[in-house]
């Protein structure tokens, strides 16, 4: 099996990092060929040891089986064995092990001296079960290499993967895979503004940082709303194989009943299903007997059926990684050799919650246009990460901090029927909002947390100037205040937007970031000049933030380079 060029790059960077640091984390989303890449890394490491011994950890039987099949195609020269509830064999050069079985005390003692320990779905690596295996492997061989691979490194509980990995070797982006044709694009529809969205925004997070499933179900599980789910699905995706993510088992049962009542073949998988029951349902999906598969926290990761081309979100997630995992179930392309009668150009996502609104897009940490060239140290954990990364995959530190909007809904009534859904693009580069400055000459500013851009009209031309905020300088960015373009307004705005994308996370500081549309805080109002307050009858946090960026950052910096037209701007 031949690797794609991007997969080769991922493998090479991972091997180099393992040999240099002794461990590394690689981030590869659904469709990147994660199993193929980790298999190739094992094959490369084998070349460095005379009596090579490796173990690949997984937490589900399905993952173990999938991994073994692909591994053997990549490394036909390496022998394999299995360590799980049925088989406990270490004879192979590479052993595939179930973490639940291997982590038991009596089985830990059976681990041989390993050269390489691979952790699939490595965001689980800090769990006690994994920690005990890692500790035992290091006890037997202090020089054992630890390689982790995951699609979603940023854990919802904010626990740092840096406890296990000292660096991140590479990160493949979802946009790369879509642009190269290895994933299909998503077409996402969200509920139009109304009290459903407001009520979901008003929910409080649990201690662990996510929403209560029962609280979400109280809003999203009702007979009229379930009828709306069916209506919108029939309008937009009635011919598509579909997977539905629900909040609770009772909620899921009601959704299945609604689909069946509409004469759509739907079935349910939950934690209450036995292994044989689950396998029977999944076989029905594969054979085409079942069109709609409804689940509760079962198919979020590790399950792949490429013909799925519609994902329905009937659960709420404050964790972006969970949203990406759910939508990822529908992004895989069709292999005609395997599914000759299937075709697929995109994936319809129907989000009846607000996950898409909260998280903005499908990219976790990187700018969509950046090149994966070189590395840098995370400001917080001081560990090596890809240079363009804006959020550390190891400790979760974000260069652009998220400001939460205060947007609590008062109305406790349940929302119901006849709502519309609007299409949003979860892969578009979210533009930054421009706020006009009070001036005879036309001038405006867009700002994030680390940088700002000003557009100033000069005659018939527009000048775009860029600079860093104080926070951007503190974060370690090094870019002088400068003119970046002079010419037409459209081009000036486009180039300014490109510059801002290099230093900001659009999901947290772009124009669709939720906090930007909230009312101004009292602290902001203390600093915003009266002329700006008068210009906007209903001043938002976003506009106030842009004004303050001008007053405290852009204005003095523009003066320093002689670009600030003081008399015009003050009139």
Q: What would your notes on this structure say?
A:
With 571 residues, this protein is α/β, with parallel strands linked by helices. It is built from 21 helices and 21 strands. 36% of the residues lie in helices and 19% in strands. The protein is globular. It has three domains: 5-30 and 33-150, P-loop containing nucleotide triphosphate hydrolases (Rossmann fold); 179-364 and 406-424, Rossmann fold (3-Layer(aba) Sandwich); 435-570, no CATH class.
CATH topology of the largest domain: Rossmann fold
What's the β-strand tally? 21
Strand line-up of the largest beta sheet = 3-4-2-5-6-1-7
CATH superfamily of the largest domain: P-loop containing nucleotide triphosphate hydrolases
Can you tell me the CATH architecture of the largest domain?
A: 3-Layer(aba) Sandwich
The gist of it:
36% of the residues lie in helices and 19% in strands. With 571 residues, the protein is α/β, with parallel strands linked by helices.
Which helices and strands appear, and what pairs or packs with what?
Elements: H1 5-21, E1 23-27, H2 34-46, E2 54-58, H3 61-74, E3 80-83, E4 94-98, H4 99-102, H5 105-108, E5 116-120, H6 128-140, E6 145-150, E7 168-171, H7 174-179, E8 185-191, H8 195-202, H9 213-220, H10 223-237, E9 241-246, H11 249-261, E10 266-269, H12 275-287, E11 292-295, E12 308-314, H13 320-328, E13 346-351, H14 355-359, E14 375-377, E15 384-386, E16 421-424, E17 435-436, E18 443-447, E19 451-458, E20 461-468, H15 470-474, E21 482-487, H16 489-503, H17 506-509, H18 522-527, H19 530-535, H20 541-560, H21 566-570
Parallel strand pairs: 1-6, 1-7, 2-4, 2-5, 3-4, 5-6, 8-13, 9-11, 9-12, 10-11, 12-13
Antiparallel strand pairs: 8-16, 14-15, 17-18, 18-19, 19-20, 20-21
């Amino acid at each position: 099996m031949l690797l794609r060029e991007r997969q080769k790059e991922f493998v090479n960077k991972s091997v180099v990092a393992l040999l240099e640091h002794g461990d590394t984390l690689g981030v590869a989303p659904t469709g990147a060929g994660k199993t193929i890449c980790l298999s190739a890394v094992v094959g490369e490491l084998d070349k460095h040891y005379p009596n090579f011994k490796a173990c690949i950890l997984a937490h589900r039987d399905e993952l173990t089986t999938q991994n073994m099949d692909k591994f053997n195609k990549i490394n036909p020269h390496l022998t394999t064995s299995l360590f799980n509830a049925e088989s406990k064999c270490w004879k192979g050069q590479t052993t595939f092990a179930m973490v639940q079985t291997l982590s038991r005390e009596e089985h830990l003692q059976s681990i041989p001296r390993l050269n390489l320990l691979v952790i699939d779905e490595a965001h689980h690596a800090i769990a006690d079960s994994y920690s005990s295996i890692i500790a035992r492997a290091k006890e037997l061989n202090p020089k054992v290499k630890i390689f982790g691979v995951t699609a979603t490194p940023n854990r919802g509980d904010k626990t740092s993967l840096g406890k296990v990995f000292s660096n991140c070797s590479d990160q493949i982006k979802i946009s790369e895979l879509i642009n190269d044709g290895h994933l299909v694009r998503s077409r996402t529809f969200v509920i139009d503004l109304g009290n459903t969205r407001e009520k979901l925004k008003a929910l409080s997070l649990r201690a662990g940082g996510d929403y209560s499933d029962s609280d979400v179900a109280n809003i999203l599980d009702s007979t009229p709303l379930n009828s709306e789910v069916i209506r919108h699905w029939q309008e937009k995706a009635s011919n598509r194989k579909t997977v539905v993510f629900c909040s609770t088992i009772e909620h899921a049962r009601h959704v299945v009943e609604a689909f069946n009542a509409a004469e759509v073949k739907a079935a349910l998988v939950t934690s209450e299903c036995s292994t044989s029951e689950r396998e029977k349902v999944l076989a029905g999906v594969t054979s085409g007997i079942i069109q709609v598969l409804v689940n509760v926290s079962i198919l979020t990761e590790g399950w792949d059926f490429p013909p799925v081309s519609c994902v329905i979100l009937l659960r709420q997630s404050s964790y972006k990684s969970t949203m990406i995992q759910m939508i990822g179930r529908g992004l895989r392309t069709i292999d005609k050799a395997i599914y000759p009668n299937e075709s697929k150009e995109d994936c319809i996502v129907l989000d009846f919650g607000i996950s898409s609104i909260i998280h903005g897009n499908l990219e976790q940490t990187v700018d969509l246009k950046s090149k994966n060239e070189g590395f840098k140290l995370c400001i917080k954990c001081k560990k090596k990460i890809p240079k363009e990364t804006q959020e550390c995959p190891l400790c979760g530190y974000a260069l652009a901090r998220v400001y939460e909007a205060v947007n609590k809904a008062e109305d406790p009534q349940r929302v119901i029927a006849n709502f519309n859904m609007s299409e949003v693009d979860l892969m578009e580069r979210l533009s930054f909002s421009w706020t006009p400055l009070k001036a005879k000459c036309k001038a405006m500013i867009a700002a994030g947390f680390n940088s700002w851009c000003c557009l100033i009209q000069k005659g018939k031309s527009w000048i775009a100037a860029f600079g860093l905020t104080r926070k951007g300088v503190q974060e370690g960015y090094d870019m002088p205040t400068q003119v970046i373009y002079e010419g037409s307004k459209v081009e000036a705005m486009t180039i300014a937007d490109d510059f801002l994308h290099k230093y900001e996370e659009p999901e947290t500081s772009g124009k669709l970031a939720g906090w930007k549309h909230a009312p101004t805080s009292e602290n902001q109002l203390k600093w915003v000049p009266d002329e700006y307050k008068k210009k906007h009858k209903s001043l938002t946090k976003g506009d106030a933030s842009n004004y303050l960026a001008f007053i405290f950052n852009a204005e003095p910096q523009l003066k320093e380079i002689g670009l600030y037209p003081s008399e015009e701007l003050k009139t």
